[in-house]
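Troubleshooting: if your tokenizer reports a length mismatch, compare your output against this known-good record of 620 residues.
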Amino acid sequence: MLHRPRLLEMVDSDGGAALTVVNAALGYGKTTLLRLWCIERPEAVVWMTLDAADDNPVRLWTHLATAVERLGQGLGGRALMYLGVRGALVETAVDELMNGLVAYGRPVAIVLDDLHAVGSEASLRSIAHAINRLPANARVLAATRSEPSISVARLRARGALREIRARELAFTVDEASELIAREGIELSRESVELLVERTEGWPAGLYLAVLWLRDLDDPDQGVRAFVGSARHVADYLTDEVLTALAPQTRDFLLRTSVLDRFTPELCDAVLGREDSAGVLAELARSNMFLVALDARGEWYRYHHLFGELLQLELGRQEAAVLRRRAAAWCRAHGLVEDAIDYAAAAGDAETVAELLVENHLEFIWGGRTGRFLGWVRWLPSELLLEHPVLPAAGAAAAALLARPEVDVQRLLAVAERARRERPQLWSPYVEAAAEVTRSNVIERGDVGEAVEHARRAVAAARAGADVLTACGLASLSQALFFAGELDETRRIAVQVVERPDAPDVPDGYVASLGLLAWSTPSKGAPRARRRGLLRRPASRASDSKLTPGRRQWHTLGLRWRAPRRGAWTRPSERRCAASYCDARHSQPSVTRTRCSCSRTSASLDRGWSAPPTTSSARKG
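Known-good structure output:
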């Protein structure tokens, strides 16, 4: 990497701006500049490379808060706690994270690479909120291909924004001369000026030119041979670079460009050859846009720009065939997400569906619920009807992620249509999955109906899908809690937590622990057991596999662990708990119960007051 002091000084001289934006098209060295700056600066750095999955603000800030927590224990803890509570404002968690940075007390830089990959209004709004509340000891640096929608004009007017654009990132003649000389190329000053002019100083274009020029007998004549825009220059240079290679190497580059990352074994499988290790070693020695992803030299990728240009040379049909082979290899080697990505890119929806059916529980219980749901939505509806477990599991995923109820119901409707039109494909497993979700998503309906759905889920699971029994029992325990049946709640929740497979079902396990923490009487259970029920959910507080829809129970259980009050031992507190779900309502609803929970939580925060009477609870 060429050391470019003038750009490093521009990043340094922020003038006290909270945000520094490095904004330019592909190939301008945005990431390289920020990496060099971070290496040379003494302060702590929190680096995050963004992608489309960060359209979920909870995911985005969970990663950032986890990174801040690594700077010092407790700095990101409260933010992570709020992010784990269903319905909590992300901005509240952001405020807590800013407080953590204040407590850190030393300079810290937060780098958001590829900010253009984030498109959701919610995530961008949360980033703007963070910038507006950034403490004096912190700054944000962002690399992007387009102007971000984070109130840039307002920040600019306040002097809180430092911008570095393509015109600053473009190579000067002196910088280009240094780059060319470092590669041992003898080029006249006039030719360097012409090269900079025709590439418009585009760093990627100049880098391509250097690779090409170093093998020419007359580099000055080579510079005079091409004209055009930066993209045309890149196309021209890529063609020239490929032409200079042996046919076998050129074919290797073109056909492996469809791989996001690769090993010699994967290349062999995709190309039907056995010498990929030697070809990759030679490409690495020749600096042919190859990036090693590990110290052992097992995984590689191409420079992003070079890979994109190579793919333009490859026919769409051939690319699809190669991606199908890559999907098959990844599937055989347990790289399920890579296999799905390659199959989807090849348009092979059937393989995507098969992989999702085989691995849906690992995705949902393994903390990758959002990715699973995205793939299910990508599949055509006809294929979902052929695999009814996918709409049923997709509905469960949407519910666990607290997506709008209409999204959940849409997938449940597809599952119901599969039951009618493909009865031979329906099974106790699909029945249990659908009924668990129906029990969990009743927000405005009859709690009694939620109990019935949960009982059907348990019956279906016990009839032929034992792997879902813990989920069904957890849903039943929750529904019974909302219905005011506290004794039954405890009985069913105990069945869940005492199952050997319960810890493998993090959402149901923690939900049941939280319900036990709420409903276990102060009398009739040993004190040590009550404390254990309260502490066991705490041990899972930072479990990344937990979804927002279940973390609420963990949080509710923990509210009564605070040192300032006991484990829900006072009779007044117990009477208030019972008032949450007054069974004398003919149709107690989930929403009514949650509102009561919120009111009681607020009372506890203020210092316990007299519990509401039954009549006052009804008026609420």
